[in-house]
Design a protein that fits this description.
9 helices; LAPTM4/5; mainly alpha; 2 domains; 4% strand; lysosome; single chain; two-stranded antiparallel ribbon
Length: 226
């Protein structure tokens, strides 16, 4: 019997021997906390721009690092990420497969961006030296890192990005397995009722049927008195 690659890599357990549903909930909450902290920092910077405004004179440039428009865009992105992560957490907890799809798409998009960064480093290795020159003078170990050869820098950066990509690919697999588990769980809960005239009626899952309010009971029967 042939087994498809999707079924071969399918598993209901992830890191720390926990269930993929539990792992997706933890991952969603973790991403929500990170984006909430970033959003809080951005809102604080917008409320007090004089204290948190960084000019690129400190970074040996002539342009501002981040103006108010860019900070508003970053705040909107952080808010959107909180919404997407919340949807994934709710979908994994309530067994709603469709709510996990936006978070899975974000993971694919993030993985593709990191892959493009790795490809650009291989194609244009001199960009690492250009990036090091833009760092401030008080950056730790800047001179030691700049003294290394381009080949050594490229290998170090590619090794670092490769570890990140491997970890992100594992998280993508965990979320995908959670989506398959929730989808299969929802499909198995659908009941089939076959009538006598060979017609099939699909009944809703048991949880949905419990949420429907019961009908009012009929009035009590009273015997007629002569």
């Amino acid at each position: 019997m042939m087994i498809s690659p999707w079924d071969r890599w399918y598993s209901t357990s992830c890191c720390l021997c926990c269930h993929v549903r539990t792992g997706t909930i933890i991952l969603g909450v973790w991403y929500m906390l990170i984006n909430a902290v970033v959003l809080l920092i951005l809102l604080t910077a917008l409320s007090d721009p004089e204290q948190y405004h960084l000019t690129s004179a400190e970074l040996a440039n002539d342009l501002d690092v981040m103006d108010d428009a860019n900070m508003c865009i970053a705040s909107a992105i952080s808010l959107l990420m909180i919404l997407i992560c919340g949807m994934a957490t709710y979908g994994a907890y309530k067994l709603r497969a469709a709510w996990i799809i936006p978070f899975f798409c974000y993971q694919i998009f993030d993985f593709a961006l990191n892959t493009l960064v790795a490809v650009s480093i291989v194609v244009y290795p001199n960009t690492i030296q250009d990036y090091l020159q833009q760092l401030p003078d008080n950056f730790p170990y800047k001179e030691e890192i700049a003294a290394l050869s381009n080949v050594c820098l490229v290998l170090m950066v590619l090794l670092f990005i490769g570890c990140i990509l491997s970890f992100k690919a594992y998280l993508i697999a965990c979320v995908w397995n959670c989506y398959r588990y929730v989808s299969g769980r929802g499909t198995s809960e659908i009941l089939l009722y076959v009538t006598t005239n060979d017609t099939t009626v699909l009944l809703p899952p048991y949880d949905d049927s419990l949420s429907v309010p019961p009908k009012q009971p009929p009035p009590p029967y009273s015997t007629a008195t002569a």
